[in-house]
From TrEMBL:
It comes from the Eukaryota. It is an enzyme of class 2 (transferase). GO terms for molecular function: N-acetylneuraminate 9-O-acetyltransferase activity. It is a multi-pass membrane protein. Residues 253-734 form the Cas1p 10 TM acyl transferase domain. It catalyses: CMP-N-acetyl-beta-neuraminate + acetyl-CoA = CMP-N-acetyl-7-O-acetyl-beta-neuraminate + CoA; CMP-N-acetyl-beta-neuraminate + acetyl-CoA = CMP-N-acetyl-9-O-acetyl-beta-neuraminate + CoA; a ganglioside GD3 (d18:1(4E)) + acetyl-CoA = a ganglioside Ac-O-7-GD3(d18:1(4E)) + CoA. This is N-acetylneuraminate (7)9-O-acetyltransferase. It is found in: Golgi apparatus membrane. The chain crosses the membrane at residues 269-291, 355-375, 396-417, 452-468, 474-494, 506-526, 561-579, 600-617, 629-647, 659-679, 685-709, 730-750. Keywords: Acyltransferase, Glycoprotein, Golgi apparatus, Membrane, Transferase, Transmembrane, Transmembrane helix. Its main location: Golgi.
């Protein structure tokens, strides 16, 4: 660990991911858009001073501000650039040698006779080698000249950002005869002299000239593609310009996916209060634990010296109290949240950008598929979508989604479209599961609602506090929470129609279908009326939950993307339970779901439908157009999968315990990945062990899965305490929870006011 200054990594080290994507050593580089570059550099004056290589860098840099710029003008003269809309001025000054002329120009900035630049980029050497035919005398003079310039640059570095660009290697075989004396050996000697002399007199780290040495590494990989053996190809100098932009702008713009050169965010008031709470919980648990240990020692069985018999203590070991269980859970949670904070808010661990390749996605998929098949066991029951099967379904889907996220496969549209089906399948299960429960049990009590809401939202609420993120940031939990409440409201409002009532009179089935049609109409209306949707969720305090970046558009987009699939899940549950009640399907062990003929026909249609959807998704060319069709057609592949999985009796009778284990903690896995497996709020990858990508993924994955499992246990334990079955006690707890959220809203308002 070299400390928290990731600028050093950005300027000096890294590697290529593929051919064109540059990865700094263990920090993330943001790809700046023109608008972002202008916002960062508004009212700034930037100077590039040097030879033709610096001129190349100058052009790549100003193209980040204005892509329409053409490389025109006198190649051996000064070139000005100005963006009047943002008051940005960038100049290239032609000084191909480090000499008295360059020194005089730099000195004029220190004396205040001309406007001082905010950013100065300097570099030159190849002309000195060329003009003096690579003589040792020229190198000696270069050292003398840099020695005279260095104090001036260090003086400027106190108030400006000063970068000395080291000389890139050349491709000697391609150099023209007039440049044959420019060898890599000579270039290394000049670079070594510059590094040794610069900052030799400066003891103040803030007054240091930043050495831009990463360009050498980039050139070593790409100089073979040079047109003349001396100048870098366009993609390489664009990378250098982007690095320069990250070095200066990350600390100003604070992009989520730009961890290089970005300072650690300050603790908010709510985070400080959370820290105090978890600290007190740990102290409280330790005190209670010590008291219990002392009591146990006092009451420990002792030997009767006269009879030699062992006497049992009069008082037995006390049972674990509710307070102790509560403190124990919060103690563990506090330690886990500390790890979350260190991983994704502190600059302790490093982060890297994602980079997609087909092998990085498909090889792990094959690997987990083999593991899943290896752990095949018989199910306890053979009903359609039984508990083991739904856990297995959630498990393998979650593992695929995790691989999708860490591999950066969202850039590959066919994979993206199939992952959208997996997210839709989760919501389908939400509709199916909750409808089945309310339809069969008829339990619309407050206890059931509170249990579900607590289990869904507990971890996310804690992370919103600890990680200082809005509720909508963890979009999937708000999505399933709102859909649960919609399902509950649809079935709970008068008239309450449940299976027991409907069995007495078939007309109640039509009443339920009428309810479902009303629900579908509301969904259709809201999906095409963005204004109405935004009005509903813009009321305070709902707006605090569903706003992201100051508006609810992101929430509307997420909701709209899978708007029909929960309804499809409810409708499927209704039809399946009706067929089951009338004994129109066979769910015995090893028996096909229908008669052999019907089963074979349905199985054939399902396989064809499944493959047809995959072919369509794989042929998608435009993400926007495919997303428009997705809500209506995703159910095709979901239903096809259910039928393929359940029609053959022998397939329905087995499940993968490996996938089912992950399925039981799928929600925790989905949420925890944001901060302790991925990094920078899912934009990058957490690096616990730099330099060993595969080993790093293995270690971080092991910790991530263990933490998710532990949080699942903590949530279950706390759910029993916070949401008791006794209605009067539950009402008191709900009042306490309401008070807690009122306090949270109050402190959140204070934070927002202080930020503004």
């Amino acid at each position: 660990f070299k400390g928290g200054d990731t600028c050093e990594y950005l300027l000096s080290s890294g590697r290529f991911l593929g051919e064109k994507v540059w990865q700094p050593h263990s920090c993330m580089m943001h790809k700046y858009k023109n608008s972002e570059a202008k916002n960062c550099l508004v009212d700034k004056y930037i100077v590039f001073i040097g030879d033709s290589r610096i001129r190349q860098l100058f052009y790549s840099f100003i193209k980040l501000i204005n892509p329409q710029v053409k490389e025109e003008g006198n190649k051996h003269g000064n070139i000005p650039f100005e963006d009047k809309s943002a008051s940005i001025k960038v100049d290239f000054l032609w000084y191909p040698e480090v000499n008295g002329s360059m020194r005089q120009r730099i000195k004029s900035w220190t004396e205040g006779s001309v406007a001082k630049p905010h950013i100065i980029v300097v570099g030159a050497a190849t002309w000195s080698i060329k003009i003096h035919n690579g003589s040792n005398e020229a190198l000696t003079q270069y050292k003398i000249n840099i020695t005279s310039i260095a104090p001036l640059l260090e003086k400027l570095a106190k108030s400006s950002d000063v970068y000395w660009v080291l000389q890139d290697p050349v491709y000697e075989d391609m150099l023209s005869d007039s440049r044959k004396m420019i060898t890599n050996e000579k270039i290394d000697a000049y670079n070594e002299a510059a590094v040794r002399i610069l900052n030799s007199s400066s003891r103040n780290s803030k007054a240091k000239v930043k050495v831009f040495s990463v360009s050498k590494l980039i050139a070593q990989e790409t100089i073979m593609k040079s047109a003349d053996g001396l100048h870098l190809p366009e993609s390489s100098r664009d990378t250098n310009a982007m690095i320069l932009m990250n070095v200066y702008c990350n600390k100003i713009m604070k992009p989520i996916d730009g961890s290089c050169c970005q300072p650690e965010p300050p603790l908010t008031l709510i985070q400080k209060l959370a820290f105090c709470f978890f600290t007190l919980s740990i102290i409280g648990y330790l005190i209670i634990n010590l008291i219990h240990r002392n009591n146990f020692r006092k009451n420990k069985s002792c030997t009767d010296l006269e009879s030699g018999e062992e006497k049992k203590p009069a008082i037995s070991t006390p049972n674990v109290s509710t307070l102790e269980m509560l403190l124990h859970s919060f103690c563990k949670l506090g330690l886990i949240m500390t790890y979350f904070y260190l991983c994704d808010r502190a600059n302790l661990f490093m982060k890297e950008n994602k980079f997609y390749t087909h092998s990085s996605f498909f090889i792990p998929i094959v690997y987990i598929l083999v593991l899943g098949v290896f752990y095949t066991e018989n199910t306890k029951e053979t009903k359609v979508l039984n508990r083991e099967q739904t856990d297995e379904w959630k498990g393998w889907m979650q593992l695929v989604i995790l691989i999708y996220h860490i591999s950066g496969a969202s850039t590959f549209l066919p994979v993206y479209m199939h992952i959208r089906v997996l997210v839709a399948a989760y919501l389908f299960q939400t509709g199916y599961g909750h409808f089945s429960y309310f339809w069969i049990k008829g339990d619309f009590g407050v206890y059931r609602v509170c249990q579900v809401l607590f289990r869904l939202n507990f971890l996310v609420v804690v992370l919103c506090i600890v990680m200082d993120r809005p509720y909508q940031f963890y979009y999937f939990v708000p999505l399933v929470t709102v859909w649960f409440m919609i399902i509950y409201a649809t079935l709970a409002i008068w008239p309450q129609i449940v299976q027991k009532k409907a069995n007495g009179n078939c007309l109640w089935h039509f009443g339920l279908l009428l309810k479902l049609i009303c629900l579908l109409t509301c969904i259709y209306f809201l999906s095409y009326s963005q204004g109405a949707f935004e009005k509903i969720f813009s009321f305070w305090p709902l707006s605090k939950c569903f706003e992201l970046n100051g508006n609810v558009y992101e929430w509307w987009f997420r909701w709209k993307l899978d708007r029909y699939v929960v309804f499809h899940g409810m409708l499927f549950a209704f039809i399946y339970l009706a067929l089951q009640k009338r004994q129109m399907i066979s769910e015995g062990k090893g028996d096909p779901l229908f008669s052999n003929r019907v089963s074979n026909v349905l199985l054939f249609i399902s396989i064809v439908s499944f493959l047809t959807y995959s072919i369509w998704a794989s042929s998608c060319k435009n993400k926007t157009e495919c997303n428009e069709l997705h809500p209506s057609v995703s159910v095709v592949q979901i239903l096809a999968f259910i039928l393929i999985r359940n029609i053959p009796g022998y397939v329905r009778s087995v499940y993968s315990s490996f996938f089912a284990w992950f399925g039981k903690i799928s929600l925790e896995l989905f949420i925890c990945q944001y901060h302790i497996w991925l990094a920078a709020d899912t934009k990058g990858i957490l690096v616990l062990i730099p330099g060993y990508p595969m080993f790093n993924v293995l270690v971080s994955t092991f910790i991530f899965v263990c933490v998710a499992h532990e949080i699942s246990q903590i949530t279950n334990d706390l759910a029993q305490i916070v949401v008791p079955k006794d209605n009067s006690t539950l009402l008191k707890r709900l009042l306490c929870i309401a008070g807690f959220f009122s306090g949270l809203l109050f402190f959140s308002a204070m934070q927002d006011q202080s930020r503004h």
